């Protein structure tokens, strides 16, 4: 599904890099995201493209029970992600064991245009970053 994207196609995460050289190798499982920010970007891209398996796989195992695949699928179906801005980050580098990324992601639904603001917490285990939790605020900008 995702491989139909061409290398010319810019990554949805807003990095300005081609998808094939940005989030695609992480979402396709060819590489592990090296930093908390890159994991966060690739999860945004996975939301934008509907890569539910990747979203679940990169959620901290102890949080997966709370994930409802059907709800994520529905969110993806009714939401168009239109932009990502990284506002702030703490730690989350290659050799760190945890990190925080603050970002804004804009999206549209049938009825509304919104901005989601989140401070996300991540941790790394055996070289793999996981999304733990976050403080989320959504505001309408329509
Ligand atoms: Zn990307």
Summarize the structure in words.
With 142 residues, the protein is α+β, with helices and mostly antiparallel strands. It has one domain (2-140): Nuclear Transport Factor 2, Chain: A. It has helices spanning 24-27, 36-49, 52-57, 69-78, and strands spanning 80-91, 98-108, 113-125, 128-140. The protein has a four-stranded antiparallel beta sheet with strand order 1-2-3-4. Strand 2 (98-108) and strand 3 (113-125) form a beta hairpin. The radius of gyration is 14 Å and the shape is globular. It starts with 23 loop residues before the first helix and ends with a strand. The model has no long low-confidence stretch (mean pLDDT 93). The site of zinc ion has 7 residues, from helix 2.
